[in-house]
Design a protein that fits this description.
By secondary structure, this protein is mainly alpha-helical. The protein has 8 helices and 3 strands; from the N terminus they run H-E-H-H-H-E-E-H-H-H-H. A 3-stranded antiparallel β-sheet has the order 1-3-2. It starts with a helix and ends in a 36-residue tail after the last helix.
Length: 213
C-alpha cells in the first residue's frame, strides 16, 4: 500500500474541506515529505486522481482577496470516507507494512474509537508473532543463524525488527488503555493542523505550480 492515499484523504478529512496547498502544508508540518512519498507533485496528483475516482468532491472556489486564480477545494465523499477508514484499519493491523504507511496510520489513529484502536493494534501484535514464528521455524537452522555465516544476519535482522515492532505496539496499546489521547466520540482530539495564518516551521519553502491551484 502507498502511504500517499491515506495521508491525503486524512489531511482533507481533518479540515472538512481543503485546497491542495493546505494539504501540502499540513503534511510538511508532520514531516511527511521526509519519511514518505508525500512530495508536492504526488500530493496534487493524488488529489486529482482521487477526485476522478469519486473519493473526493472538487469545488472551484472564487479567487482570494489577494488576487490570483481560483483554487480547487476538496472534500471527502461517502466513498472517500469508507476508503480512508479501510486504509487506516489495514495499515494498523498489517504486520508487514512499510514504515511510512504505519506512520501515516498512527497519525490518524485517534479518528477511531479507543476500543477499536486497541483491538486493531492487538491484531497487529498477533500478526508479528505469527510471522516471527514462521521465520524461526522455516528459515532459521536448528543450530542457529550463525551456521549460515554472515547470511544468518538476515535472520537476526528479521527477528530483531519483529521484536522491536511488537514491543513498540504493546507500549502504544498500554498507553491507550491507560487513557492517553482523545479518540473519536470522546471530545475534540488533537489533530495537528495549522491555522490559516500560522507559519509552518517545517515547510520546505520550495514552490510548486500546484500551490496556486
Amino acid at each position: 500500500m502507498s502511504a500517499i492515499r491515506l495521508l491525503v484523504l486524512g489531511a482533507v478529512r481533518q479540515h472538512g474541506r481543503a485546497h491542495g496547498y493546505q494539504v501540502r502544508n499540513d503534511l510538511e508540518y508532520w514531516g511527511a515529505h521526509e519519511w514518505s512519498t508525500a512530495k508536492p507533485g504526488s500530493i496534487y496528483h493524488a488529489l486529482k486522481q482521487m477526485a476522478k475516482q469519486g473519493l473526493l468532491y472538487a469545488y472551484e472556489t472564487a479567487p482570494s482577496t489577494a488576487g490570483g486564480p481560483p483554487r480547487t477545494e476538496y472534500e471527502l465523499t461517502e466513498k472517500g470516507t469508507e476508503e480512508f477508514f479501510a486504509l487506516l484499519r489495514e495499515s494498523l493491523t498489517s504486520y508487514d507494512q512499510k514504515m511510512d504507511v504505519l506512520s501515516a496510520a498512527v497519525g490518524f489513529l485517534v479518528c477511531l474509537a479507543r476500543e477499536e484502536a486497541v483491538a486493531l493494534l492487538k491484531k497487529r501484535v498477533a500478526g508479528i508473532e505469527r510471522w516471527k514464528a514462521g521465520v524461526l521455524e522455516h528459515y532459521t537452522p536448528a543450530e542457529g543463524p550463525q551456521t549460515l555465516g554472515h547470511i544468518g544476519e538476515i535472520m537476526h535482522l528479521w527477528v530483531h525488527s519483529a521484536d522491536a515492532g511488537a514491543e513498540w505496539t504493546r507500549g502504544l496499546i498500554e498507553r491507550i488503555e491507560g487513557g492517553a489521547y482523545t479518540f473519536a466520540g470522546e471530545g475534540e482530539p488533537f489533530v495537528g493542523v495549522l491555522g490559516p495564518d500560522e507559519e509552518n516551521p517545517y515547510a520546505t519553502g520550495v514552490p510548486h505550480p500546484g500551490d496556486a491551484r
